[in-house]
């Protein structure tokens, strides 16, 4: 009997390890989506830099999260022996891998906003600092109950802040950190002339579309595998993810007047927004959530570029920052039983938790990038920016005619 129980336990542990490993691999693949989305959006002379940034950021983020960030968030380190770390079929190690791919998404989000005019190494070090300290501080606050914040929300409003897969913890935090960096960097040369916006056309729409598709497919690992164990898997999460994606596609196509850039970012806006409540919402609520996000992205991207002269190259603040905020609040609306959700969520707790994420992200980002600016400077020289980051930093162009 003991042998049977042991075999069942081993099977369960190995199944959970495989489950979350598949999720980690799917989210890892999403970083290729971040890369190609940026490559297709920036001008030709900055394509190599986009590719190098995403890969380099991932490597430095992994180190920062392994040695510091995961410790900050979950009070867990990896200084034990391999025999201890591999217990339970190494589930805890693979859980780290999964959460690390989330953490590494923060620099990937920031990269798209600051493209075409940022220095390489100062921004790389700053991104690593973000992953080591700023992001895990809020991650631990929400997903590990650090400092009693969630306990206070539950005692005060009847429910803790609910963010199943990171609308706020990952996306809003990344978007608001990016906004701080974008504001400190300033606009690209030639972006505004006589107060008027000058269009910088995307260099490669097929690459942009490829990036969007890779992200869209990987998102099902991002959301569904956030259950982290087999017994927590839910088809509701998968269908809600699908419906929010569809809502973002339809509304961005209409609001964006057939613009391919808006269309391919539309499903991403919907997916950002549904992360928080994907395990609670009714599919129709998820559809509405995604639809609103698609419109939000198109409207805000246009507004900040034209009126506020915030030069956010890929629109990461409206896409991740604002749609992430909307997702945190939407979980409190469409997650309620009154609107067909599963309940167990408080709108006020969602609002307060979301605002807390914005404050931590923007203030933390402002501090980190201000220090980086004072220490080494984070903006390319006028000449280097004019020549393009590819030649200025990496000494090679994206393509060769030879």
UniProtKB/TrEMBL annotation:
Protein's cellular compartments: Membrane
Residues annotated as domain Ammonium transporter AmtB-like: 19-395
GO cellular component: membrane
Topological type in the membrane: Multi-pass membrane protein
Organism superkingdom: Bacteria
GO biological process per UniProt: ammonium homeostasis
Any GO MF annotation of the entry: ammonium channel activity
Keywords, alphabetical: Ammonia transport, Membrane, Transmembrane, Transmembrane helix, Transport
Alphabetical list of Pfam families matching this protein: Ammonium_transp
Stretches that traverse the bilayer: 18-39, 51-73, 93-114, 121-144, 164-185, 197-221, 233-255, 262-280, 286-304, 316-335, 347-369
Family: Belongs to the ammonia transporter channel (TC 1.A.11.2) family.
Protein name: Ammonium transporter
